Amino acid sequence: MVSIITVNYNGWKDTCELIASLKKHETLPYEVIVVDNASQGDDADKIVHAHPDVMVIRSKVNLGFAGGNNLGYRHAKGDYLFFVNNDVVVKSSVLSPLVQRLQNEQVGGVSPCILSLYKPDEVQYYGYCRMSRITLKHTTLPFDYSRRRDYMYAKETEVLHGAAMMFRRDVIEHVGCMSEIYFLFYEEFDWSYQMQAAGYKLFYEPASVVYHKEAMTLPKQTPLREYYLSRSRMIFARKNLKGMEKCLSCIYLSLLVMPVKFVGYVLHLRTRMAWKMLTGTISGIFVPIR
Questions:
Q1: Residues 70, 189 within the same domain
Q2: Beta strands 107-116 and 88-90: pairing type?
Q3: Pair 169, 3: CB distance under 8 Å
Q4: Where are the beta strands (DSSP E) in 38-119?
Q5: CB 151 within 8 A of CB 143
Q6: What would you report as the CA-atom Rg of the chain, rounded to the nearest whole angstrom?
Q7: φ/ψ of residue 235, rounded to 5
Q8: Residues 151-169 pLDDT 10s
Q9: Is 191 found in the same domain as 87?
Q10: Which domain holds residue 36?
Q11: Which one of 40, 49, 70, 131 is least enclosed by Cβ atoms within 10 Å?
């Protein structure tokens, strides 16, 4: 059985749409676990009313992305754990190819092909490369519409996608759960690195396709998003880089990226963005790494 775990925060309509799409299309045995991350309204009640057969766990505090998923994992019964964002929907059965890929004991985790729900010709995830050392910039080549067929082949990937990723239970028991130090962003990158360090391979499996709305919980270009991106990027550098690379990356992020972005936001009169980016970076520098 597959345990499907999703985290809800003020997004009960999206969560219900995800569950409804699974009920309509999925054929493999599964259970759905929804973790309501201290939504401000009565989201949990609405989800229970719409889908009384689904397990809804009510957290009294917002545990963040990793904390919410880890809480769901502790209640899961499946041999396979499918962590999926609540702003995802499926239009066909997706679990079986992912489970089949994980039959190889060397493979620890797998992500499906992720398409944009509103632009279905746009492939959001087709396997990711590791970020560049020191600068932590993405090295994955941009999506090219003219080569769309080239993205539809299974392959080993260096990083999974947090919107949809499946693991065997024994892998999580070996590596451990997602780090909760980030709260938002970079958790799947960190987890991918930890799994590879433990000797597991990660795969991109386009035989499974999900559709992603994206940024429904925390919209793009907002001060809060900028805060957590800046904070998590610094934490990631401190946690995953070693020696001189760690030192140079922290210097690069704090003494080059932060001042340049700060001045840019101020010049465009986006003072809240500037302040959140600054405080996020500083928080990432001083938060204890565990």
A1: yes
A2: unpaired
A3: no
A4: 55-59, 80-84, 88-90, 107-116
A5: yes
A6: 19
A7: -60, -45
A8: 999 999 999 999 999 999 9
A9: yes
A10: 2-212
A11: 40
- Domain end among 212, 243, 258: 212
Say whether both 51 and 168 belong to one domain: yes
pLDDT band at 217; cut points 50, 70, 90 = low
**Angle between the N-to-C axes of helices 187-197 and 223-240, in degrees from 0 to 180, rounded to the nearest 10:** 20
Q: What is the C-alpha separation between 125 and 104, in angstroms, rounded?
A: 22
Q: Is residue 153 within 8 Å of residue 177, measured between CB atoms?
A: no
What residues contact residue 12 under an 8 Å CB cut-off, 6+ apart? Answer: 39, 41, 43, 44, 46, 47
Give the pLDDT score at 145.
Answer: 87
Mind listing the pLDDT tens digit for each residue in 55-103? 999 999 999 999 999 999 999 999 999 999 999 999 999 999 999 999 9
Paired with 212 in beta bridges are 88, 116
Of 129, 132, 177, residue with least CA distance to 156: 129
Neighbours of 153 (CB within 10 A): 12
Is residue 218 domain-resident? no
**47, 157: one domain:** yes
- The CATH number of the domain holding residue 150 is 3.90.550.10
Contacts of 118 (CB under 8 A, 6+ apart): 213
Residues 182, 71, single domain; the answer is: yes
Entry pTM:
0.95
